[in-house]
Every structure is written in structure tokens, then in C-alpha cells.
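## retry 2 of 3
previous attempt timed out at serialization; input unchanged, resubmitting
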Amino acid sequence: MKFAAIALTLLAFGLLFGCLGGGEATPTPTPSVAPTVAPTVEPTVAPTVEPTVAPTVAPTIRPVAPGEVRLKGGAFNPDRISVQKGAQVTWYNDDTVAHTVSRDSTTVGPDSGQIASGSSYSYTFDAVGLYYYHCANQPFMRATVEVTE
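## retry succeeded, writing output
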């Protein structure tokens, strides 16, 4: 019985030392967790687009001689001229649309009717004074002839 008590005591010590780690223990693997890294996002920059601007093209206007008026681009050029009594003034339609030379509220002065593109109209001024006229098709077109002695 003594033998059984000693065996039991040794068994108890063996179990106790085995559980307490009295010898080399096999390490328990710890699960490794990789750190979560958020992807770096570069800001998207839209390319700068320069607007395309068409060059401005000035209308071709022939030089104006004394006693000449050019109709082009919705304007009389020049919009005021001075001539002597008895002078003839000629209006040239250099535009792509028809125009008129219509006197403003007087019974004397130029009154052309329709002047087609590429055509002209002439009027002789026999009296001194100011002659205001406009285009009946484009009433914003206004001009003046000053007749002197």
C-alpha cells in the first residue's frame, strides 16, 4: 500500500508539473491579423480646357470717296457726310441683304426703294440743309447728309 501511495503521489506531481509548465511547452500559435490599410486615393483633377475662340473678321469696307456712302454690316458708312449744294451722293450696297435710303418725314431728300446687294443708288442735293435718312428694312440704320453752299 505504501507503494500505491508513492505511485499516486508521483502521478499527482507529474500532472501538476505538466500542467504548470515545468518543462518546455509548445507555444500556442497566435493568429496573426494583418493590419487593414485603406488604399490611398489620389484626387482626380480634370484637365483644363482652353475655349476655342474664332478670330473676329472685320467686314471688308471699300474706302469711302467724297459723296459716297457704303451700306455694310447693318450700318451706313459714314453715317454723316457733308457735301455742297448740287452734289450727287451715291449709296453702294456692299451687304448681303437689300437696304433702302429712306428720307425721314420730309417731302424732299433721298428715297431709293430697295437697293439689292451689289447695287447702288444716287441722289442730287439741290437745297442747303440737313437731310436725315434711315433704312426701311433695318430702322436702326440711321444717317445724315449736310448740304452747304
